[in-house]
């Protein structure tokens, strides 16, 4: 578990950040996932995949699921009270070039499944098979989701101009 944290914590936080658009929320999601994995591992052998690649895939899927839950809760809260769009902090703006900031803002506005597929493919560089496994869909669905997502991303990016 320590190796997973040391080697992949940053990439898991990046995944959550790209899906949620909120750094603090992303860090909370990943921390909660690590806590759940640790509790599960403490229950005894066989509760988690033993091989590092499978454990990483399990952690990624857990982060995806936790982000989905967070986004569902936000959508529910927006239905009750209109919440503002995620705001990029001054620190984030300083770190990101204008084009990258616009891409990220457009990405955050995509439907969740399209955002997940694009982030897994182009930010984490996973194969279509790995994305399909993480998302629980077929490889063909991954291809069409990415294609539609990229079209929508282009449109939203142009709107940001």
TrEMBL record:
Q: Name one GO biological process term.
A: DNA-templated transcription initiation
Ranges for the RNA polymerase sigma factor 70 region 4 type domain? 101-153
Q: Which InterPro entries match?
A: RNA_pol_sigma-70-like, RNA_pol_sigma-70_dom, RNA_pol_sigma70_r2, RNA_pol_sigma70_r4_t2, RNA_pol_sigma_r2, RNA_pol_sigma_r3/r4-like, WH-like_DNA-bd_sf
Q: Which residue range or ranges hold the RNA polymerase sigma-70 region domain?
A: 4-75
Short name of any one Pfam family annotated for the protein:
Sigma70_r4_2
Named from the GO MF annotations, one term is: DNA binding
What does the UniProt keyword field contain? DNA-binding, Sigma factor, Transcription, Transcription regulation
Is Membrane one of the keywords? no
TM region(s), chain numbering: none
Family per UniProt?
Answer: Belongs to the sigma-70 factor family. ECF subfamily.
Name of the protein this chain belongs to: RNA polymerase sigma-70 factor (Sigma-E family)
Native source species: Actinomadura pelletieri DSM 43383
């Amino acid at each position: 578990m320590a190796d997973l944290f040391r080697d992949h914590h940053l990439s898991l936080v990046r995944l959550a950040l790209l899906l949620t658009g909120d750094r603090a929320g992303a860090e909370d999601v990943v921390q909660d996932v690590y806590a759940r994995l640790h509790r599960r591992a403490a229950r005894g052998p066989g509760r988690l995949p033993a091989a590092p690649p499978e454990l990483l895939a399990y952690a990624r899927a857990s982060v995806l699921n936790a982000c989905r839950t967070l986004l569902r809760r936000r959508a529910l809260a927006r239905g009750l009270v209109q919440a503002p769009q995620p705001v990029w902090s001054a620190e984030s703006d300083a770190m990101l070039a204008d084009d990258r900031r616009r891409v990220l803002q457009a990405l955050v506005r995509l439907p969740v499944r399209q955002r997940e597929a694009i982030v897994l493919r182009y930010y984490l560089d996973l194969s279509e098979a790995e994305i399909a496994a993480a998302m629980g869909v077929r490889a063909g669905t991954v291809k069409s989701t990415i294609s539609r997502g990229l079209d929508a991303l282009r449109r939203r990016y142009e709107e940001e101009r």
